[in-house]
Amino acid sequence: MKRIVVKIGSNVLTRDDGKLDVTRMSAIVDEVVWLRNNGYEVILVSSGSITSGRGEMHTERKLDSVSERQLYSALGQVKLMGLYYDLFREYNVHIGQVLTMKESFSTRGEYLNQRACMNVMLENGVLPIVNENDTTSVTELMFTDNDELAGLVASMMDADTLVILTNVDGIYNGDPADRNTRVIPMVNYDRDLGEYIQTSKSDFGRGGMITKASIASKVAEEGIKVIIANGKTDNILPELVEKPQETMHTEFRPNPNPTTLVKKWIAHSESFAKGVVKINDKARAALESDKATSLLLVGVTDVEGDFEEGDIINVEEASGKTIAIGRSAYSADDARKNIGVHDIKPLIHYDYLYME
Predict the structure, then answer these.
(1) Contact, 327 vs 312, CB < 8 A?
(2) What is the C-alpha to C-alpha distance for residues 99 and 117, in angstroms, rounded to an integer?
(3) Is the distance from CB of 35 to CB of 4 less than 8 angstroms?
(4) 333 partner at 20 to 30 Å CA-CA among 30, 104, 128, 315?
């Protein structure tokens, strides 16, 4: 059975007046059920809690942005899941809520615990609906937006496909307002689309197309097909499955040589790093060679930060550019003591090292 992660953006679930679009939500539920009935395991990553909450009440005094987000997401998540419950119940589909935070992906133990939770749900026919826990997430540790969360979930759950539903037909080769502009139908995972992408954000979400393209490239590099399509188009999910050549979208071709599950976790972990190690040119050349190479302490020139064995650390070349991310086999203190030492275990074993 193929596994697909479908991310629904707030710009898809929101009407022009800023209220939740229940009609569109109902249509997407119909399409998700169609996927389940046609051989797909589906995980839904859904925005919309803050939009739902904002429509529930008005405060007597103006709130700061953090308080507003916490209040409306707490109110709205209940309403959002209630709507999903009622809509899926018409098809006798059980749903389960998964609220998570960026921190929950930062340690291998929490990462595997989340993975086990969603696996047991899928094994028992329960549809996981995932959203960021905006009630407790603080700004510095929030996901860029739910595109980043969806990418992490697709990677963690070893999905075959990630579909990002937004309010445009895909990535355009110019200004979407220009009638000569066209949607780019297919790109390789390593293609840089920066020259084509507009920098504007949607009215109802934190991220824009630059974020989507960046996440899509990283996830596709890990061997997962990524599709960016218009969630406001009728029957978009079945059309993408049955008539992809005729359906407007941008597809990122997956890397035919995907990384391991452990490396998929590490690939998304740069922002979780507890420290930095700087390496010399000889070590950099060894890591960038075609051979499977671990990072040895003999090639380390400096250790920054306070990390423990098992923590994620970034690897920087002499210029300060991050070239790799990995799981440290030493604490920061032990690594400092052994800088330049030969013939001891690697600082980062190849199996736990991801090259940027």
Answers:
(1) yes
(2) 12
(3) yes
(4) 104
